[in-house]
Write a structure and sequence with these properties.
The chain is an alpha+beta fold and 209 residues long. It is built from four helices and eight strands.
Length: 209
């Protein structure tokens, strides 16, 4: 892959609804694998977004979201998976973009070794699969994506994305008001990309008796 500078801090330090679609087609590079992002979701934190981890304010878990833009927010979910987000906006106001899916464009042997027995289309088709394929986990929480030595890092698309190919809709698996696709059509993806994940609405889980 060509060696170019990672995206600047100013790219990320914008409104999350500007940054999210602008990340489509960008290249995420980490641990020997390069991924072309095909699907993301925006989360606006305490700015009226009930689907966000930070909706009720800062906690030790969400502290990175309240920090400077251009850092990685990695969280553990369902007791088994990690998901990776890019922090956006102004420091002190939590917002982030969930990296939902992408196409491996370099480092195929490493990706295949991390996802044995899985077909290539599905290597990073979903946020938990994406982190496994990219070798991302808890130690990457808070990682700075900006600067020449950044690891992981995100590069601009090799070719510009046609805005007409960008689609929007409800976020996957978000329960309650935050899952309302009319109020929060904050999932963005590239039309026709086979790596885009399947939409599933949020389901309220019943507590075991």
């Amino acid at each position: 892959m060509p060696e170019v500078e990672p995206l600047s801090r100013s790219f990320f330090a914008r409104d999350v609804l500007e940054v999210a679609p602008a990340l489509l087609g960008c290249l995420l590079i980490n641990a020997g694998v390069t991924l072309r992002l095909t699907e993301v979701e925006a989360y606006a934190g305490e700015k009226g977004d009930p689907g966000s981890h930070a909706f009720r304010g800062q906690t030790p878990r969400t502290a990175v979201m309240f920090g400077p833009a251009g850092h990685l927010y990695v969280y553990f979910t369902y007791g088994m998976h990690f998901c990776a987000n890019v922090v956006t906006g102004s420091e002190g106001f939590a917002s982030a973009v969930l990296l939902r899916a992408g196409e491996v464009v370099d480092g195929h042997d490493l990706a295949a070794a991390r996802r044995p027995g899985i077909r290539e289309r599905d290597w990073a088709r979903g946020p938990a699969r994406l982190t496994v394929t990219m070798g991302l986990g808890r130690p990457d929480n808070g990682a700075d994506l900006c600067g020449p030595a950044a690891q992981p890092r995100i590069l601009a698309p090799l070719t510009p994305i046609d805005p007409a190919t960008i689609r929007t809709g409800p976020r996957v698996g978000v329960r309650g008001p935050g899952g309302d696709g009319t109020a929060y059509p904050w999932r963005f993806w590239l039309d026709g990309e086979p790596t885009v994940s399947v939409y599933r609405p949020g389901v309220v889980r019943k507590r075991a008796r």
